[in-house]
Design a protein that fits this description.
Chain lengths: 115, 110
Amino acid sequence: EPEVTQTPSHQVTQMGQEVILRCVPISNHLYFYWYRQILGQKVEFLVSFYNNEISEKSEIFDDQFSVERPDGSNFTLKIRSTKLEDSAMYFCASSDHLRNNQPQHFGDGTRLSIL
Amino acid sequence: RKEVEQDPGPFNVPEGATVAFNCTYSNSASQSFFWYRQDCRKEPKLLMSVYSSGNEDGRFTAQLNRASQYISLLIRDSKLSDSATYLCVVRSSSASKIIFGSGTRLSIRP
C-alpha cells in the first residue's frame, strides 16, 4: 500500500537555527498538509498546499514557516529561527481530493527537538 | 466551545467487551468525518470514514448524527491490540484542513 514518507525521523537543532523537514506524499495525491503535535497535546493543522500554492494556513503558520514543493515528489516544511516551543512531532499528510469523504494519509512523522 | 470535543478517558475495559466513544463538533457546515487511531508516539492512522447512514467495518461501527452534531464509534469484541487513542476528525466543506479532537484513550486489559 502506498504511503507518505518523512525524513528525518528525528531532528535535533540548536535554538535559532533553521530546519527543513521533508516529505514524499503518495504519488497520485494532489493535496498536501503539515500538522504538528506537541507532546501530550492534540494534532494541530499548520498548512495545506494545492496546485503549488498554499490553500489554507493556521495562526500557528506565521512568517517563521514556509512550505515548498521543489520537485515533483518532495514537499518540505522550513522553520526559520527555531524556538524551544517548536519542539514537537511534525506530520505530513496527503489526500487525492477533497470530495467524497476522502481521508488524509499521514507519514510517520519527524520528531523535532530544539535545544 | 471547542471545534471537536471528545471525552479524554481513559476507558479501561476487559478484552471482549464492547466500548463506545462519542464526539461532538461545533461547525454545522462540517461535511466529512473520520475516526483515526493513534498509538503512543506514532502517526494518526485512518480507522474509518463516517458516512451519513452509518457504516460498519468488522468490529467497528461509526454513526453520524447531524442534527445533534455528534459522531460515535462502537468497538465490539475488543482486542488487546485495540488499545490506543481514538481521534475524532472533522472537515468543513469550505476547508481543506481537518480538525482533530484531543482523543479518547482506550486501554484493553486481558
